[in-house]
Amino acid sequence: MLTDPIELWFVIITTLDVYLWLKAFHVIAVLAFIGGLTTGALGLATVVEGKHSFALAGRIRQWDRVFTSPALLATWGFGIAAAASGDWFAQGWLQFKLVLVLLLSAFHGVQAGHLRRIAEGRGPPERTLAVPVLLCVATIAALAVVKPG
Amino acid sequence: MSEIKATDKTRQVSLLELMSYAEATTLILLVCVAMPLKYLGDWQSGVRLLGPVHGFAFLVFVWSAIEAISANPSVWTWLERLRLFLGAMLPFGGILNAPMIRRKSRHGSEQELTRC
Q: CB-based contacts of B53: which residues, under 8 Å, 6+ apart?
């Protein structure tokens, strides 16, 4: 007989096989986030190179706030919930993936900051983060599929 | 226009202050309540619930801090940046850092109004 409500909650989640749904919503959020992040990186790069006006940066920033940032929150939320319900946190590959996720989130934070900097009239940044973002995304995808160790 | 910019900036740095409190509170609950109950009272559920909740709050805090620093790097010295991230890893560190974050928020807004 379970009297602990938290333990009961975890038993219900496991029984209903919520894991697959959490994983599905996590993947949907990841696709939305990566789409927004790479679009933002590309748009920001063209602004930095002077090929487009700052108005484009304003538009990217608007998109980032209503779409990409909420997608990032959803990615974390569903990802953490899926890992907790599947007891994945002890796995080495997930711990390494979490480090890369933190790094990718940091890249998005830097990009969001650069967009705000342009919007507030402090000029464009010196460089963009398109290459490290793509490397990070590729490694995370490989770890999630192969699950080494 | 300048009013909109300043308000927007204050809102963003306030998110950092809010997340500093949220991150600190979940860490205190995890370290000072859930972990002693796990190891002394054999009650695992607290850690199982609070661990992921704190992880989520920590990630949002790190994102907000990086965004705020990257948007206005001249406002934050290297020591203050270090203090911000070290504070997030120690219980009560986020609460001790909150006044500094509020000060930065005010400073940034004033700087923005002067520029506009």
A: B26
Chain B interface test: which of A6, A8, A33 (most B C-beta within 10 Å): A6
Q: CB–CB of B56 and A80 under 8 A?
A: yes
Quick one: B19 exposed, middle or buried, by C-beta within 10 A (0-12, 13-18, 19+)?
A: buried
Torsional sign, CA B52, B57, B60, B66: negative
Instruction: Give the phi and the psi of residue A126 in degrees, each rounded to 5.
Output: -75, -35
Backbone angles phi, psi at A68, to 5 degrees: -70, -45
The 10 Å Cβ neighbour count of residue A133 is 21
How far is A107 from B31, CA to CA, in rounded Å? 29
Whole-prediction pTM: 0.80
Question: How near does any CA of chain B get to the CA of A81, in Å?
Answer: 7
Cα–Cα distances (Å) from A91 to A21, A126, A149, B42, B81, in that order, read 21, 38, 7, 23, 31
- Report d(CA A28, CA A25) in Å as an integer: 5
Reported ipTM: the value is 0.78
Give every CB contact of residue A83 below 8 A, 6+ residues apart in sequence. A89, A94, B52
Tokens representing B56? 């989520």
Q: How far is CA B107 from CA A70, B110, B111, B115, in A?
A: 28, 5, 6, 12
Answer yes or no: do B52 and A80 touch at CB < 8 A.
yes
Per-residue pLDDT tens for A32-81? 999 999 888 888 888 877 766 677 888 888 899 999 999 999 999 999 88
> Of A29, A116, A115, which Cα lies nearest the Cα of A78?
A29
